[in-house]
Design goal:
The structure is a single chain. With about 260 residues, this protein is of the alpha/beta class. It has a single domain, classed as 3-Layer(aba) Sandwich (Rossmann fold), CATH 3.40.50.10470. About 35% of the residues lie in helices and about 20% in strands. α4 links the parallel β2 and β3.
Length: about 260
Amino acid sequence: MQHALADLEPAHRAAAAWRNAQAIADEDAEINAAIGRHGLALIEREAEAGRKPVNILTHCNAGWIACVDWGTALAPIYMAHDKGIAVHVWVDETRPRNQGLLTAWELASHGVPHTLVADNAGGHLMQHGHVDMVIVGADRVTRRGDVCNKIGTYLKALAARDNNVPFYAAVPTPTIDWEASDGLADIPIEEREGDELRVVRGLDEAGRPAAVNIAKATTKVANPAFDVTPAELIAGIITEKGIMPATREGMSRVWRR
């Protein structure tokens, strides 16, 4: 944006900034819609196999709050629902930020059947055959297909592998870092402040914002915000250019398209 505005007279910059912002938003919406169309094919395949509803587990928020119009991980779900395919979404709370609550709110707004679950319930649901696929978003992806996403994603991938549940990441290609090869070595993990764990925030009985301390301020806290899911645990990377294997060769196809 700064580059686009640098040579303009100050009086013209506001209008130009709005035009550029709209172009960025339109491009994002097109990318997300394409991700949705490719991911929809996976849900259709599960439905054709007799899974009614198709039970999908997701983690964090990767809907239209995060990405324009469709979101990434939620885009295939919205499209399946709109097409009349019976779907049900298991929504992880995604503590300590509780971003799964945003996902639950989104799905409710769209009329998509869903159930909010504790983060640690995912493995149990998979063991009992209640999950047909996992779809998550990503904050960063390496050129060999490692996926960095909200903390807890790696554990979902491990449980999915142990229970033969396909695990997918829905990823716009700009999220792929072609300079990063090894996710564990090349992606620094943000450490967030401790009160995210020590304090629970919500609404009191009168509907007013409230905070409750659940640990002393002196309690030592480790609060990594993200984790890395190795490529070998991922069934496929859903991009706007198609579904790619989470391998160096598969990711290179994205580069060539």
